[in-house]
Amino acid sequence: MADRGDTHYTVSGLNKWFLFSSAFLLVSTVWMVIDDYEAPWKNHQRDFQALELSRAEADLSTESALALVADEDARKQDLANAQAELEKNSGKLEELEDEIFNLKGKLFTALEAAKASKQQYNWEKYIAEEHRIHENDPTYGAVELDALEQEMIDLAGEQQEAEIALAAKEAELMAMTSVVTEAEKAVKAAVKDIELIRLKKQKLAPENIGEQIAKIVRDDIPGLDFIGPNIKVQKVVLDNLTFDLNFTKKTRIDMCMTCHQAIDREGYEPGEVEEPHTSHPRLDLFLSATSPHPLTEVGCTICHRGSGEALDFGRIDHNVSYLFEPEKAERWIEEYHWHKKHYWDYPQLTTDKIEASCIQCHKDTMEVIAEDAPEVTEGYRLFERYGCYACHKVEWFPTKRRPGPNLKNILAKTTPDWMSAWISEPKEFRPTTWMPQFFHLENWEDDAVVAKSNYGAGRDIKGGEWNDSAVAALTTFLSSRAPIEDYPAIPVDGDAQNGREQFRLRGCLACHNMEGYEGEAPATHDLAFDSDRYNQNGPNLRGVATKINPEWLFAWIKDPKALWSETRMPDLRLSDQEAADITAYIMEDPDGVFTDVPDGWDPTISPYDMDVLAEQARSYYTRTSRVELEKRLKGEDPMYRWDDPETLLVAVGEKMVQQYGCFSCHEIAGYEDANPIGTELTTWGSKTVDKLDWALLANLKAEEEGWSQYQREEYKSYREHWLRQKLHEPRSFDREKVKSPTERLKMPYFAFDDDEVEALVTFAVGLVNDEVQQAKMVPTHAQKQMDTGLRAIRQQNCVACHVIEPGTLTYRDDDGIVQTIEAEVMSLDDFKDAGVHPIPPQTSRDDLVAFVEDYGVKIDEEIEDIGFRILGTSPDVGPPGDTVFVYLDDIIDVTPAWGGDFVRMATNYYYFGVEQYDAEADEYTSHWGSDEWAMVADADGERRDYSDEFYPKVRWTFAPPVLWGEGAKLQKDWFYSFLEGPFQLREQMQVRMPSFNYPEGHAGAIADYFANQAVLDWPGEFARRFRASQEMSLDELAEASEIPAEILAKIEADNRANIEARFSDLLAYAASVDYQAFPAVNPEHERLVRQSPSYLENAHVGVGSDLARTGPKCFTCHIDNGQLPEAEPISWAPDLAFTQSRLREDWVVEWLRNPALLYPGTSMPGNFLSEPAQYQELFPDSTNDDQINAITDWLFNYDQVPKN
Amino acid sequence: MGQAIRDLVDAMANPVIYFLGSTVAIIAFVMFRRLLTKPIVLIGFTVFSVAFLAFAWNDPNFNKIITKGDNIPIIILLASVVGFTWLGMRRAVINDDRIARGEPTLEGEVSKQKVFTWPDLVYTEFICLILFTALLVTWSIIVEAPLEEPAASARTPNPSKAPWYFLGLQELLVYFDPWLAGVLLPSFIVIGLMAIPYCDTNPKGNGYYTFNDRPFAISFFYAGFVLFWVSFVILGTFLRGPNWSFFGPFEYWDLHKLEPMVNIDLSTFFWVKALGVPRPDNPLIREAPGLIFLGGFFVLGPLILAKTVCKKIFEQMGMVRYQVMMHMLLWFALIPLKMFGRWLFDLKYLVGMPEYFFNI
Fold it and tell me: What ipTM, to 2 d.p.?
């Protein structure tokens, strides 16, 4: 534009501005387009496409793929030949094709004519009908209509003729070209396995030029890549899993798979491919379509948290702690410009805390998921064990009882002096106690001035004396609320030696231990002194005689529930004599254990000071006026004579109980209904971090560690850090704070170790308010029962005495194949001479090998291999009961049995004798055989030496029974009634099944648990037994049954998904080869048929009775309706009178067939294994199965059949 | 040294010093305008600002508040207000000299020329349009959108800040009842702005920059806009932290910072402190001192002023216009009055009648 010269601005100048600004706009627009094109998620998808392409190419160049391609080439050659052959007849072919063309034309014409005629006819018909009605002329147009109809029929006939002619010609053509079509099919069939890969490759890198251009336009041109792109945002919309925005809930949308494209696909292992292209590490549990948590239903953020709708690395709130994972954080900062987001209230969980999310849905089934979520369930159990729930309410938490003992009768149990010392520092007396420490902690430093007496006008009061007076006051108050009841004297004299045996054999040590104060390895192989397993359910009893009164102890072990209604201590149904003996043993303490107290333990009441107590009264009695308080302190108020130390102590003590919430854990008279004092934690994990009071701690830590302000801020932005600190050092948030005594933090010190803290943190982080339960995961009745059952088993400590699942052994066999079997390690030889415990511990491979090597040194012999007894059906190794010898080097792993510590304890007691503590030498020595009392008194009163018996026999006879497969064995009703009212089932046993103090529903849940577990175990067990019976390898069976070996292996390993998918096929195959299946358990009702009148018509009850008595002679060992057998107690077996109400029929049949298969090592012989069958004189022409059936018939009608 | 500067700046940044400092700066700017509008001053000021920014940049607290996505416009606002105020004053000074010398003003010279719609108006507007579009595009690429957590009515952010242009009003909430600060005063601002053309009939200063011709109007503009509006926006943006506490630019925004605030009403001063008797129960009697004071302030004030200082203005404007203007000005004057009352005497309300939701 020319410059006119009369304008204010020069046009050429403006033109330059225009040029510049337009260029700027152009540049910024281009930049915008490129910026969008270069979005990180798009680049991830491009990378993934490249990865997929390279994989497809690699897949196409494998040997098998190349072979397929070669085959395809051959087929193509065939095709070419066929085509050439056809080519020779091309004249005929063309002719034929022409004819077909013409015929098609004819057919078309005929079709059209027929259609038109039909239309015409319909139209005429309509006209005629209308006319006939309106004009009342019923025959109108009949002739025309008939003519039209005829025409229509004729035309249809012509059409059909044309169709037939065409079909004939087409068939002719097809016959001519069939060789070619067959060859084409062969080509396709040859490559059907790689066709998918080819298609994928074709899609990713098309060969066709048009498709290439289309792909470039769709994905590779910035600014145009919005037109039907392959690269696009992926998402799942989760209607049921809402996102809580207070007052409103929003559908959760997760877009994570936009970058994590392979997350739900197999085969993208970390290491092979890089983030974010890896597969989820637990596809069996998460995301895959067959898993319980498919991607389309649960998404990502419900577990991981973070922001699912973000596509930018930082905005997702990918979580890493700069402080604790600096390398990862550095890498993220460098690669993704990561920084901690403070604005997102649902920060992504770090990998080690991810299990926290399980709680959201699995609140009611925490025990059931324990195996897959060990950390969070550990936290859940610790939360229960340490009684956290007692002070900190968690609404859904299933345990409600007060975790600490009843203090209403405390003075009957112990003395105020002892109480005072205990309250002051419980762990000093008993390092393993769960009772936390409340006093003499860091916010009450002994020498620090914490207050001034007389409202700040008097003398300085130090933290130490404040605490001492508080402890004295608490003790006095608690004593005042626990009047000494008149405990009756012990009615009989106890015998300590006898008590010792009772104590060890009845089962006390299943829950209690007597580990030393220093925690050093015990000098004995007596498990009582080794406390790393189930014998921690009750307190450590070391030093206990210095604490308790004998009369109380007697009353307590006679009937614990009478003294503390919520106790877990069971009733062992001890006689007065037994209880008196045990009392005598503990109080007289021949072993020097129960009177052993730690150095410096001095149970005297804490010193108290009237000034301090007065100040405490002033601090805590805030609702009483100053004037009134002074009156009381001077003794001028007749109701409150606080000048008397005793009265003042009680008054202050009561406030201390309120302050520290003692009643949350203990029953205290007057505080039965008091509310717990801690913060409710039901939704603690949803509390925003800024609501946590860090006080000065972060600043102090930052100074200590030299953190920058950024690091300090980051530290404060993780709730985990806060809780970790709180659990490790509960009072540390008071550091450097100026606080009055009443304001100071009260949370006690539990001395958690690092692992415990992490588990508890994981649990607490999972306590969120996202309501998923109703929407998604509704546990079935069976699942809930399983959960309650498992919890009951843990809480009642069933596992201490009973093996619930056997341990396993993983080793490399002679052929180098890795086998995992259920097995137990067997005792080593030569143990008598070595004077050491000869059974290696099956706790871990390292423990086991170390023990064996050590033992080898002791007996001066190199041990190369050890024996394992096979316990479960292992088709590739051998039947249960067989021994497999494994070289130490070949052992890969062992896992311990679930439960059964006390089995070993009891068996050892019989087998190796009683050890005695020699206090002077501070060691335990075995007196086996040297003293009469060192032998075990049997049920018939005699003392016997069992050291030469077969170890498993002793174990199966005298130790608590194993419970694996118990659900298939016991009738549920009997099981339940036995749990509620146990009795002596095996007369020879000293070990006693206690009467437990079950919370409501727990006994039934235990019985249910075993029944349900039997249902779950059955398919795997069936598969293993079936294959063992067929003597086939996995591959052979796979071939025969057409089920892939991989799936068969998974079915045998109890994998639920594969069982659900293919087990029915296996069942069908087993039926087809006439495998006699043992039936599955129905957990709801028993399958009892043998007592029905119709069954009894053909049953062999009488034969069974004769057979049992004179054939295998069952009553040589079994008790006959209360009548003890003549054999020695070690051979005694349960009363057969119980069978019909106690056992499942199917199980009895299995058991009689071959007892060793069910319980390897049992004393019960296999009476019906010989071929041909024995006892033909008693039951002519019978097979073993006939005999077994007859005996079972008799057993289940035992009460109907006379003894002879 | 660096720390000393930071501490000094933090110490200066408390509301009293900040407000008084801004007031003094404005007064000084007006008084020494001849000196301060020399280009070297602006250059010096810019150099100083850049140097200060460079010094402060590495401080984590300063950096955090400056680089926050939604604070960037305020930085631009800060720079442009200073720049344009300076520019306006510079031209005013030049014009005043020219008028004194009897020459035409700068704008007067220009307006003698013709100004065409095209290209002088439309073309420049078009260029501006393009530039700003490009600028916004670039800005949105470079600066991340300052998104925060999902909004939740039960969990408001701390501090909860108004949009930046309302931060001046939000600052008033510290000193006034919400009803007053949130409803009445903003209404008066709007009414006052609408009333200006009717009150101000002085034709001088139209179309050119000047100070000498309109000293009162321009000073009032500086007080009202630059001091009470813009400087409060800056204060609210950069210096108000969690719990609406005051923080220096180098200070860490500590959630737990406490400020002693035991404020009392005028009635307590009068009855309890001065007379030593309890406050009467009847709210009207109790609040009589405040009511009388306000009555005097709003009724007698304009009358007395009309007879004395503002006699000339009163004669020029007539009763109605004078009263309207005066009431607007008195409401405006109430703001610093209450601020000083708060700072000096911990005064809460002049009239505090929560019974009738009437607090001033």
Answer: 0.85
